[in-house]
Design brief:
about 200 residues, minor pseudopilin epsh fold, five-stranded antiparallel β-sheet, 2 helices, 9 strands
């Protein structure tokens, strides 16, 4: 007895092959996007580690020199700096990712960083100016500081793709990194300096 099996049914049809190829292309695209996002995340965490070391260096400098420091931000160059306005000593930190410093947490207050150096307001023997949310951020020992934080974020269109908060306890010297929801970051920036982190 002869088999009546259809000889064409043992192979894939052109439509089935195109569907499989399309599915593979979609999966490769999704994996590629996740890989790029995770790569940005790895670079951001690496920059956060460097930023934590930079914060420790800045705190050690202000303790030994007994001088207030001004934090400066240059998003175009991807760098953060601190300067001693009395002596002009300047130190830079360059970021390897596309991250920018969105702001600074001084104790529990959020401050946006300005990109220019202010006119020196503190002279020899006078205290540094008070912290102001709208102006430059001054860091110095003896001003009741217990915690310092930096918020790094990777910009995307009109928001942020990913963000991380770096905190340094100035009493114990311990630091930590926390992922930060970019939407929470936008809420924080609109909260007039009141940090809810």
């Amino acid at each position: 007895m002869k088999s009546t099996r259809n000889p064409f049914r043992s192979a894939f049809t052109l439509i089935e092959m195109m569907a499989v190829v399309l599915l593979i292309m979609i999966l490769v695209g999704i994996v590629g996007l996740n890989f790029m996002n995770s790569r940005d995340g790895v670079k951001l965490r690496k920059d956060a580690s460097h930023c934590l070391a930079f914060m420790r260096q800045m705190w050690d400098f202000t303790k030994t020199s007994n001088s207030p420091l001004v934090l400066l931000n240059d998003p175009e160059k991807g760098q953060l700096s601190f300067v001693d306005p009395r002596t002009g000593f300047l130190e830079h930190l360059h970021f390897s990712s596309k991250a920018v410093v969105v702001g600074v947490l001084v104790n529990d207050r959020f401050h946006e960083l300005t990109s220019g150096l202010p006119e020196p307001e503190a002279t020899e023997g006078t205290p540094a100016p008070a912290l102001d949310e709208s102006g430059p951020v001054y860091i110095s020992e003896g001003r009741g500081l217990t915690q310092l934080g930096m918020i790094l974020a990777i910009p995307e269109d009109e928001g942020y793709k990913t963000a991380i908060l770096i905190k340094l306890n100035l009493i114990t010297g311990r630091g930590r990194q926390e992922p930060l929801d970019p939407l929470k970051l936008l809420d924080l920036m609109g909260a007039e300096g009141q940090a809810s982190l």
